[in-house]
Amino acid sequence: MALFELSKEDRYREAWCEAVFGKKARFPREFTDAQLRRLTTDLLMQHDRIIRESAEIIRDTEDEDTIRSRTELMRMNYYEGMLRLRPFCSGEQLVVIEKAEETVKSLEF
């Protein structure tokens, strides 16, 4: 065992922080589970709102450039972000992801 090897719990918290912040946190131990759950929920809700708004724009517009850019924005930035958070989610958070999946799938051409 290496002198500074991280415990399984520390590796999990490090991965969770990376999923939430989009980069490695300098000190992942500074965040409690409650803080990370709240940040995860807030991020999921924000991503879900943007996905639903993008879906509405896609359905209402006829401009191909708008459809293409909104589809790309929705899928690459927000939907994939939600999927990165999935391993750290539970209960209601997973329901938010499932609803977003339904929205994305309803737009597949």
Give a brief outline of the structure:
This protein has helices at residues 8-21, 33-60, 64-85, 92-106. With 109 residues, it is mainly alpha-helical.
What key attributes describe this structure?
single chain; 109 residues; mainly alpha; 0% strand
Oligomer class: single chain
According to DSSP, the number of beta strands is 0
Largest sheet: none
Distance between the termini: 51 Å
Summarize the structure in words.
The structure is a single chain. The protein has helices at 8-21, 33-60, 64-85, 92-106. By secondary structure, it is mainly α. The chain has a domain at 33-106. Helix 2 packs antiparallel against helix 3 (64-85) and helix 3 packs antiparallel against helix 4 (92-106). The chain starts with 7 loop residues before the first helix and ends with a helix. The mean pLDDT is 90.
How are the secondary structure elements laid out?
Blueprint (H helix, E strand, L loop, with lengths): L7 H14 L11 H28 L3 H22 L6 H15 L3
